[in-house]
Design brief:
The complex is a heterodimer of chains A (about 270) and B (about 375). Helix content of chain A is about 30%, strand content about 25%. Chain A is an alpha/beta fold and about 270 residues long. Chain A has one domain: HUPs (Rossmann fold, 3-Layer(aba) Sandwich), CATH 3.40.50.620. In chain A, the strands form three sheets. Chain A has a nine-stranded mixed beta sheet with strand order 11-10-9-12-8-1-6-7-13, sandwiched between helices. In chain A, strands 2-5 form a two-stranded antiparallel sheet. In chain A, α2 packs across α5 and α3 crosses α4. Chain B has a four-stranded mixed beta sheet with strand order 1-4-5-8, covered by helices on one side. Chain B has a four-stranded antiparallel beta sheet with strand order 2-3-7-6, covered by helices on one side. Chain B is an alpha+beta fold and about 375 residues long. In chain B, about 55% of the residues lie in helices and about 15% in strands. Classes of the chains: A alpha/beta (about 270), B alpha+beta (about 375). The structure holds flavin-adenine dinucleotide. The site of flavin-adenine dinucleotide (FAD) has 22 residues of chain B, from β1, β3 and α11.
Chain lengths: ~270, ~375
């Protein structure tokens, strides 16, 4: 069974540099200038799963991202890992998109690819961290969605049998193709690109599609098409208050419990 | 002037850094304590393509170039210098065969070396003195379609585990390059030498007693051994050793910097003390100087400059970077007080590794001789 797989990927600021990101209270935006950008780490697991599925079943892998021109870096990295096609949905009109407007753009991009069996996403992006794009994408495309997949298998009868992580265990779920899955980091260990893969990647074409090419109504994407708006951004300052309790251990414990109750940290 | 890496080089560096930090860092100390050849690390590096950055595509390499080759050696050595050193040995052998070998030798040997299926070594040094190859005593006597080899090589990187052994021997008094496959009668690999650093790199000797090899094992022309070896030293071995030194220095500096930011004395991190900052400032400045010197020579090689034009710059890189490595490691131990001497911080281990880099691929004095001659010519 050959599979046509799409992997949704995103470029995010390097998590090790998150503390350098500045908030501009006047313009209500975040300033990422000078922060190195990388492929969203959870997406590496989605790419890896696609590569392993292709190795087993054959087929094609298409990486799709909506992002600024600089995101072509991660499209190149996807080529280096072995995807067949990298498509960047790129248009200034996409800027400011919330998760719904993002999912819409991705869905329209994916619909242009023809037949698709499986769409893989990471569980969330390290910067936005909503985890909403995957499910919204499934909804728009009318595909089933299985989230937080830690193990998956393609069944003969054209379904996916997946283990979906829940708080204290996992659920076994079956869904019929085509469908959208988000995978957790437990599912695999992402490979590194090889030197030859890197060399070849820089020779390949990154397909860039804008709103015109996609035939998208600009009112549906970007900030225009986003029903949620950022009403304000603020920096959270963590300050800790220390309090020293003295006495013998039993007494200190009693005092501590009492204080925690007063502070409503314990009920 | 453009100081940027190409996109390919940048992706390569990121890949190697990730490999070094995720795969090597957790086990570097243990591997080194065992003092065993890290065969699976070498295999993995070759699978990623790090053995083939100099190899042409028709032999399974990527031909990404000299700068790419030392970027990977630097990143590996930042974390685990012995693996960087093994890579240097592999790069040198590949370059020797690719530069001077026959098409048949290249087709037969290079793909296996690039994939890491076979381990090579290059033996020039003899007990009579590495700096003066004119006293070489290993001889190759022509006999019909064969050569009969007698002699002994010492201090050879990877020799104890090598499958393909490249070496120099004299034919009628003229140094000539050959290779022999492990297991050939009359060829014997010796034990490894006791090493102060680079403990998991097998370095040792090998000997020939009436060892017969076919004429087709001659690499390059009869009498062409020294220029072939010097080309490899100047364009590959020395810049690679310089990159190992650079990586060693970076690794030691990063450990010390982190320590100084975390260690609190007088109620604040010692990194706030100006005396400590001065030391860190000097370390980082010297490392930056070493880095650009290291990159410059191989960048010229990638631009197609002649061996002669490259040789002086790579000699400068080697002498400077190895000295910076030692200085940086000593300073790092000082900044860390007693903990600088503790094995788990891996600064002392790096100092020991750095000491091994002085003689490797030509001593500091020989580098200065090369530089001195070129500027007084
Ligand atoms: C870790 C390691 C790996 C090695 N790997 C290899 C390998 O793979 N293949 C290989 O062939 N060899 C290898 N060697 C050997 C190395 O190349 C030699 O050690 C080096 O060339 C010096 O030779 P030597 O030890 O015989 O010292 P000598 O040549 O005897 O030198 C003794 C001293 O005299 C100085 N000296 C020599 N000539 C001059 C001069 N003209 N002016 C001023 N001072 C001078 C030297 O700098 C040195 O201080 C390796 C060595 C080490 C430590």
């Amino acid at each position: 069974m050959r599979l046509n797989i799409v992997v949704c990927i995103k470029q995010v600021p390097h998590p090790e540099h998150f503390h350098e990101i500045k908030l501009d209270p006047e313009s209500q935006t975040i300033n990422r200038r000078g922060i190195p950008a990388i492929l969203n780490p959870p997406d590496k697991h989605a790419l890896e799963e696609a590569l392993q599925l292709k190795e087993r079943y054959g087929g094609t892998i298409t990486a799709v991202s909506m992002g600024p021109p600089e995101a072509s870096q991660i499209m190149e990295e996807a080529y280096a890992l072995g995807v067949d096609r990298s498509i960047l949905l790129c248009d200034p009109l996409f800027a400011g998109a919330d998760t719904l407007a993002t999912a819409r753009a991705l869905a329209i991009g994916i619909q242009r690819l023809g037949e698709v069996d499986l769409i893989l996403c990471g569980t969330h992006s390290m910067d936005g961290a909503t985890g909403q794009v995957g499910p919204q994408l499934a909804e728009i495309l009318g595909f089933p969605f299985i989230g937080f997949v830690r193990k998956m298998e393609i069944q003969e009868r054209g379904t996916v049998l997946a283990e979906r992580t829940i708080e204290r265990g996992y659920l076994k779920v079956e869904g019929s193709l085509p469908l959208v899955l988000s995978v957790t980091k437990e599912i695999n260990t992402p490979r590194l690109p090889t030197v030859i893969g890197i060399m070849e990647a820089t020779q390949k074409e990154i397909y860039t599609w804008d709103t015109k090419e996609l035939g998208i109504d600009p009112a549906l994407v970007g900030i225009e098409g986003s029903p949620t708006r950022v009403s304000g951004i603020f920096e959270r300052r963590l300050s800790r208050k220390g309090e020293l309790l003295q006495g013998d251990p039993e007494e200190v414990i009693r005092k501590a419990i009492k204080r925690l109750r007063e502070l409503e940290a314990l009920r | 002037m453009d100081f940027n890496l190409t996109r390919e080089q940048e992706m390569l560096r990121n890949m190697v850094r990730e490999f070094a930090e995720k795969d090597l860092a957790p086990k570097a100390l243990e591997l080194d304590n065992k003092g065993e050849f890290p065969a699976d690390v070498i295999k993995k590096m070759c699978e990623l393509g790090l053995g083939g950055t100099l190899g042409k595509k028709e032999y399974g390499g990527s031909a990404m170039g000299h700068l790419a080759s030392i970027l990977s050696v630097e990143e590996i050595s930042r974390v685990y210098p012995p693996a960087g050193f093994c890579l240097e040995g592999i790069h040198s052998a590949i370059a020797l065969i690719q530069n001077a070998g026959t098409e048949e030798q290249k087709k037969n040997l290079l793909p296996r070396l690039i994939k890491g299926e076979k381990i090579p070594c290059v033996g020039v040094t003899e007990a009579t003195g590495g700096s003066d190859p004119s006293v070489m005593q290993t001889v190759a006597r022509p006999e019909g379609d064969e050569f009969v080899i007698d002699g002994r090589k010492v201090w050879i990187t990877l020799a104890p585990v090598a499958d393909i052994i490249c070496f120099l021997a004299t034919v009628d008094g003229k140094a000539t390059a050959f290779y022999v496959e492990d297991g050939t009668p009359g060829f014997e690999k010796g034990h490894r030498a006791d090493q102060v650093g680079l403990k998991s790199v097998p370095i040792g000797e090998f000997a020939f007693t009436g060892c017969r090899i076919p004429r087709s094992n001659m690499i390059g022309k009869e009498g062409g051994g020294l220029p072939a070896a010097l080309t490899v030293f100047s364009t590959v071995a020395r810049p690679n050793v310089a990159a190992i030194a650079l990586g060693v220095a970076e690794g030691a500096y990063e450990v010390a910097l982190k320590y100084c930011k975390e260690r609190k004395l007088y109620g604040a991190p010692i990194a706030n003390l100006q005396a400590i900052q001065f030391s860190l400032a000097d370390m980082s400045t010297e490392i930056e100087a070493a880095r650009w010197l290291c990159y410059y020579g191989v960048w010229k090689a990638d631009q197609g400059k002649s061996v002669r034009e490259v040789a002086v710059d790579t000699a400068r890189a080697k002498v400077f970077a190895t000295e910076v490595a030692i200085k940086t490691c000593v300073r790092a131990t000082q900044l860390m007080g007693g903990y600088g001497l503790s094995p788990e911080y891996e600064v002392i281990r790096r100092l020991q590794d750095a000491l091994e880099l002085f003689p490797a691929a030509g001593t500091s004095e020989i580098m200065r001789v090369t530089i001195g001659r070129s500027i007084t010519r």
